[in-house]
Sequence to fold (664 residues):
Amino acid sequence: MVKFLIASLVALATAAGLSAPALAAGSGTVKLQSGDWSFAGPFGYFDKGAMQRGFQVYREVCAGCHGMEYIAFRNLADLGYNEAEIKAIAAEYEVMDGPDDEGEMFMRPARPADLMPSPYRNDNEARANNNGALPPDLSLIAKARANGANYLYSLLLGYEEAPADVEVPEGMYYNSAYSGHLIAMPQPLYGDDVEYADGSPTTAEGIASDLTHFLMWAAEPKMEIRKRIGVAAVFFLSIFLVMSYLAKRRVWADLH
Amino acid sequence: MSAEKFSNPVVRWIDHRLPVFSMLDHEKYDYPVPKNLNYFWNFGVLAGLALVIMIVTGIVLAMNYTAHVDHAFSSVERIMRDVNHGWLIRYIHMNTASFFFIVVYIHIFRGLYYGSYKAPRELLWMLGVVIFLLMMATAFMGYVLPWGQMSFWGATVITNLFSAIPFVGESIVTFLWGGFSVDNPTLNRFFSLHYLMPFVIAGVVVLHIIALHRFGSNNPIGIDAKGPQDTISFHPYYTIKDMVGVAMFLLLLAVAVFFFPNAMGHPDNYIPANPMQTPAHIVPEWYFLPFYAILRAVPDKLGGVLLMFAAIFVLFVLPWLDRSPVRSARFRPMFRIFFWLLFIDCIALGYLGGKPAEGVYVLLSRIATAWYFLHFLVILPMLSIFETTRPLPKSISEPVLATAKGAA
Fold:
């Protein structure tokens, strides 16, 4: 509905000041916290430190259950790692390759060109290991949920004691940000879940913020260049608009 | 048209054998256009521009897209991540689709307000409705191609509508799908048709323009040009005025593409299609929402489908429903009120189409649907009989001169 409103706003050509893509339908009781994101707004950028820390959180906390099938190790250059560092990170993973000359598949250390391996061979194995629930792939999660960044941040911090009138079944958890409030993912962050090399705070909020930053980058890796071109394009087109209007006035002046 | 008017000898040589330059020259300078067109007359050109942008970006996307259920989603992600500026091409394609509909909706409402559908422009109007129908089919099939959740379930819901047709419905749906569910053959034929349809649209656009140039543009006053004092040449006056519209269009499009590229899409379409899991709310793209609301307003499936198609069909016969000889709403005080009520009604239908079909929304959808048909089938014919219209000016120049004197 909000997107429709936005559309009709554009339709009426009232303003260029569109509101941000916002909340989706669903239970109205879901409350989202909003983080202070460096990537928000027309001049938004990704904070490399936050992304590196978020990647560390992903590796140490999330990657046991969640894959990122569209992210290759080479993409980590966006996070500020150099070629040698990326090679070293990739080499910590094993991927299947082959067939070799004997027709056998074999495992080898990953290279920068490889996609990050998934924790499970297939969805069935993933479900079998998670009480029947399928942990979603995280490469696009920040775009696949309405108000993605704030939603993820709120979800990571949304684990609460269930209200007295809500019965939480075995294997489910209460989360105030999740639609319907009952989620199969156990609470992933408690604070101090990781140790940061750069000494950044490891409160639950800090970790959730870093992870959200990393996931936003993963979903929209071209955002920085997009906004940079956008500022130039809007600047150019605004001048083009003013010039066209003045030219029009001048051409039409001889009619009246 | 004599070729002597061109100074360039190469142009003259070609034009003598293939008179394309004479033709362009004729359209540019000799085609008389009413001098009083306002900025709402920009939207035809803007729609043409949107079509060109869609075709150009679409051809580039097709070079990198894989029409297969196992690869479609990841090929789109590859475009977004690895193809040079692929993200830009795709976001332009996505957002221009929405802008195309915004522009065409304004174009249609402009026609409704100023009575552009009336004699002798009935066929021009009907060809426009044909273009609108083709656009809807093209946009629907295009939305299926990324093979996300909304792609898949949207395709399932919409194709299933045809099963409501008595006796042959099920067979038609099987024929559309190329199988017994929305699957790889469906995706392949949608891709093929999505590539074909824009060129069909371009063909009908040519007919639309031929029909337009037969009697020329309508104008805000809605009376015919009486002579050269009422008209000006298309170039430079309307080329430059269209450029202002083009600049505005591109500016707003750039804001959407670069800063809100996914605002008019649905987040669920970034989840790969999963036939085993239905999204909580299946909603079509925003530009279909008014028709979706009409579809769901009827408790009977066949009835809903018929009414939805009737909502468009009624536009075909509009020139014969509104028999008032006065074109422009400026001189039709009652019509003008009902025009704005219809406009609000369509916005309301769009809003309701995006809401779940439950509770008060169902009732409101029914009222809004009823009003839509009431407007075209009852109010317009009645107005043609009972409305007292205001006196028309004698010519296009007259009111222009009058205001000029008044201002002086």
User: Anything to note?
Assistant: Chain B has a mean pLDDT of 94. The longest helix of chain B spans residues 184-215. DSSP finds 16 helices and two strands in chain B. The longest strand of chain B covers residues 32-34.
